[in-house]
């Protein structure tokens, strides 16, 4: 039976009555939301079960994507879209007097990630299901997501994100107690001979019950539903009595309580290492248990199972897989190792040295002594295998255990058949610099997979008006097949269409202006350039470069209020890690500069500065469609890829960019005339590192503009930043400006003048914007995951695209 409005409304009312014994008119938004989710879930569950059965029937190879972060945001709209229910629900709700947007707003953001890394994992999950690949996620069900950010007197304050305690809770998860496994941590281990095998005997170990919560990941119009499995730590019933005190219980439950609020490594943090081993062990155990249910022997497991290590956090997958194959399945070391390397693959997401995880040997020994033994044996065999064949120093540099530490990236590369970077420039840097020695050892293992984004969320859902005018030109097929967006280029001289693009952008800017006014009380002009920088606050991402230019503009306008500039609204969204003092100082300086500028009537509102609190996925969905300018201004070589650059171009923003990360490929796609490039190249940055010829203080002393702008940080021009202004001033001058902000400043001013000039020619601007939208299809995560599937995991798609929408039964 086809799902139509009448059937949907009838089913909805019935479900509401069954769940809450009330009518629509008496229901709160939470009750309506919960009822809708329950209907959605029961409908896709039919396909979910079928997807599993199909995998088993066909004996499909399955991939497990291990990531310590997944950042899906809200799932209701994307599930409705993918099921083909979106418009139907909006129309049905309208008919019975329900405001769909208000109901959807009840859902808490699922913020189980910090930023790019976790969001990429979520976009991949969407694409993998939409392309019909048998790939499931494996992560942690944090009770507290990424902190909520508030500004108090311009300072960032962090509040806990109690997302599971909201009225809506997590409507999408299913607790599967029957699939729980036991994770062993701590204590001591001894190996004893038993029946010809070495058997580990654990003493004083702690047993932790790992309970999976499964979230269905619905594919786009293809009846395919994959699983995101998130693990929660609990006390095993059998040993409840061993945890008599609240404190003892808390030690176990704390393992999955909070997401570490940093997007780089927190070396030395015991709890973080526990988290890593916990979800790795739970995931690997459950994979092998499942595999064994359907296969008699395990010595060819790599033919049916692939495990992906997303960044180094799950690198212990290598050792845990070995542990089970050796200790429980009694494979020989050689066989176990062969299968492990064939099963594992690894993605590196950064070249920042501080983010390449290392753990102290005693700490790993304390958390899981058997894993340390296995890692030590891998290290020992690695060294023995290379001895005499390779330069001794190279062996020392590449071994897993050295200097009293376990190097997780080394474990990941040595234990995997594939290592990839996330943009071409980044992969090249891995080969030539960060992982150069490994590239010498295993050139065939290295490959690039440039990141991608889910066009469904970042265009169809976030910018429905733009999607609608694209439909008018291309029909709806581009929604299935991103590549078709390219055809938009042919409308480059279609003035009608270019005008429509401008109208859509204006509407999105008006909506954002309203939100800005509601949240900050500041009025902004929707016809001004909306200049957007949204990403984590990091020195290398150079929000500071943007700020210095804003200060320069302000000083210029103070001197000459009639200065002819195109009005601009500078919009920031960024969280700083709570312990990252410098980043928090930058936030304070931006906020104080904003307060000064936004309240100074002498500059006639020509510039405004808006720092929106609590940047998260939902806020990104509101900012991105309204952006004219996308600031991608990291120091060349430092941003592995970036993904906001892709989301913003997809929504027609023009990019101001350094030659860093995926910006390089964006430039290749749109052509140099359709992007604003500036700044040092990677080669120039590296030359400075080699010859030490950069002296930032000279720029302060010899460049009058820089002198004037930097002085504004310390001379009281910007109030309330006595300490922070000095801290930043010193970092840029006496401490020699690690990220070349002053070196790139003039070129940044030049390119921003070019932005103004281009904006004055609206036709040209819209043409450039159109090219950006059309070319963004190259960065669809649907395309990226296809490359992972065929080139790394060797799995095939098992679903038919364009199958019947999920509609029945309810
Ligand atoms: O900083 C990188 C981004 O450049 C990249 O786009 C994203 C996804 O690949 O991952 C970010 N990242 C890196 N997040 N955490 C790390 C630390 O390893």
TrEMBL record:
SUPFAM superfamilies with a match to the protein in the record? UDP-Glycosyltransferase/glycogen phosphorylase
Please give the chief subcellular localization of this protein: cytoplasm
- Single annotated GO MF: glycogen phosphorylase activity
- Could you tell me the EC number(s) of this protein? 2.4.1.1
EC class name: transferase
Its recorded reaction(s) are: [(1->4)-alpha-D-glucosyl](n) + phosphate = [(1->4)-alpha-D-glucosyl](n-1) + alpha-D-glucose 1-phosphate
Which InterPro entries does the annotation name? Answer: Glycg_phsphrylas, Glyco_trans_35, Pyridoxal_P_attach_site
Quote the NCBIfam families the UniProt record gives.
Answer: P_ylase
The name this protein goes by in its record? Alpha-1,4 glucan phosphorylase
Upper taxonomic lineage = Bacteria, Bacillati, Bacillota, Bacilli, Lactobacillales
């Amino acid at each position: 039976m086809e799902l139509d409005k009448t059937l949907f409304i009838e089913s909805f009312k019935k479900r509401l009555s069954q769940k809450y014994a009330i009518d629509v008119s008496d229901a709160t938004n939470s009750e309506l939301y919960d009822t809708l989710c329950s209907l959605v879930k029961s409908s896709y569950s039919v396909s979910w079960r079928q997807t599993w059965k199909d995998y088993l029937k066909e004996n499909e190879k399955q991939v497990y994507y291990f990531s310590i972060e997944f950042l899906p945001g809200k799932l209701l709209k994307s599930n409705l879209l993918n099921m083909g229910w979106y418009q139907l629900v909006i129309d049905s709700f309208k008919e019975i007097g329900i405001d769909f947007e208000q109901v959807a707003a009840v859902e808490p953001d699922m913020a189980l990630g910090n930023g790019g890394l976790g969001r990429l994992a979520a976009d991949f999950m969407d694409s993998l299901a939409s392309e019909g690949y048998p790939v499931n996620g494996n992560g942690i069900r944090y009770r507290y997501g990424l902190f909520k950010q508030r500004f108090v007197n311009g300072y960032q304050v962090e509040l806990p994100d109690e997302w599971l305690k909201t009225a809506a809770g997590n409507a999408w998860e299913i607790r599967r107690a029957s699939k729980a496994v036991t994770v062993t941590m701590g204590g001591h281990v001894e190996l004893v001979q038993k029946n010809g095998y070495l058997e580990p005997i654990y003493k004083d170990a702690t047993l932790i019950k790992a309970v999976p919560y499964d979230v269905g990941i619905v594919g786009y119009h293809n009846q395919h539903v994959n699983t995101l499995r998130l693990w929660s730590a609990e006390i095993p019933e059998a040993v409840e009595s061993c945890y008599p005190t609240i404190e003892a219980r808390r030690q176990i439950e704390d393992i999955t309580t909070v997401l570490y609020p940093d997007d780089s490594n927190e070396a030395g943090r015991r709890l973080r290492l526990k988290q890593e081993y916990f979800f790795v062990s739970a995931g690997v155990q459950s994979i092998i248990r499942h595999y064994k249910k359907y296969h008699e022997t395990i010595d060819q497991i790599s033919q049916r199972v692939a495990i992906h290590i997303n960044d180094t956090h799950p690198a212990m997958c290598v050792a845990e897989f070995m542990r089970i194959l050796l200790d429980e399945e009694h494979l020989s070391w050689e066989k176990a190792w062969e299968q492990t390397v064939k099963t594992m693959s690894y993605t590196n997401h950064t070249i920042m040295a501080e983010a390449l995880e290392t753990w102290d040997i005693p700490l790993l020994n304390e958390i899981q002594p058997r894993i340390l033994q296995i890692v030590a044996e891998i290290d020992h065999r690695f060294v023995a295998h290379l001895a005499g064949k390779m330069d001794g120093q190279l062996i020392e540099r590449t071994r897993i255990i050295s200097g009293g530490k376990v190097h997780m990236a080394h474990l990941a590369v040595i234990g995997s058949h594939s290592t990839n970077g996330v943009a071409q420039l980044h992969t090249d840097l891995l080969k030539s610099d960060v992982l150069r020695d490994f590239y010498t050892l295993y050139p065939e293992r290295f490959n690039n997979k440039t990141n991608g984004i889910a066009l469904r969320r970042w265009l169809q859902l976030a910018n429905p008006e733009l999607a609608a005018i694209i439909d008018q030109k291309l029909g709806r097929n581009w929604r299935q097949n991103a590549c078709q967006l390219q055809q938009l280029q042919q409308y480059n001289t279609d003035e009608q269409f270019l005008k429509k693009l401008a109208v859509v952008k204006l509407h999105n800017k008006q909506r954002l202006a309203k939100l800005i006014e509601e949240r900050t009380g500041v009025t902004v002009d929707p016809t001004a350039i909306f200049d957007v920088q949204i990403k984590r606050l990091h020195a290398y991402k150079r929000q500071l470069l943007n700020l210095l230019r804003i200060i320069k503009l302000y000083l210029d306008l103070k001197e000459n209020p009639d200065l002819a500039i195109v009005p601009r609204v500078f919009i920031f969204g960024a969280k700083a890690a709570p312990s990252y003092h410098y980043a928090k100082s930058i936030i304070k300086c931006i906020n104080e500069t904003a307060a000064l500028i936004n309240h100074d009537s002498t500059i006639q509102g020509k510039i405004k500065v808006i720092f929106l609190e609590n940047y998260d996925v939902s806020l990104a969905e509101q900012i991105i469609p309204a952006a004219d300018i996308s600031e991608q201004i990291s120091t060349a070589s430092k941003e592995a890829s970036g993904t906001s650059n892709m989301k913003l171009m997809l929504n027609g923003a023009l990019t101001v960019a350094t030659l860093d990360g995926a910006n390089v490929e964006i430039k290749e796609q749109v052509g140099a005339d359709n992007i604003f490039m500036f700044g040092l190249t990677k080669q120039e940055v590296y030359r400075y590192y080699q010859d030490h010829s950069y002296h930032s203080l000279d720029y302060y002393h010899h460049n009058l503009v820089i002198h004037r702008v930097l002085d504004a940080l310390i001379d009281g021009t910007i109030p309330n930043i006595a300490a922070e202004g000095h801290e930043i001033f010193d970092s840029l001058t006496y401490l020699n400006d690690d990220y070349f902000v002053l070196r790139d400043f003039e070129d940044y001013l030049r390119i921003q003048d070019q932005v103004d000039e281009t904006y004055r020619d609206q036709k040209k601007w819209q043409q450039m914007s159109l090219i950006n939208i059309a070319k963004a299809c190259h960065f669809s995560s649907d395309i990226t995951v296809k490359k992972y599937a065929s080139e790394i995991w060797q799995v095939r798609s098992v679903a038919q695209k364009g199958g019947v929408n999920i509609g029945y039964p309810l």
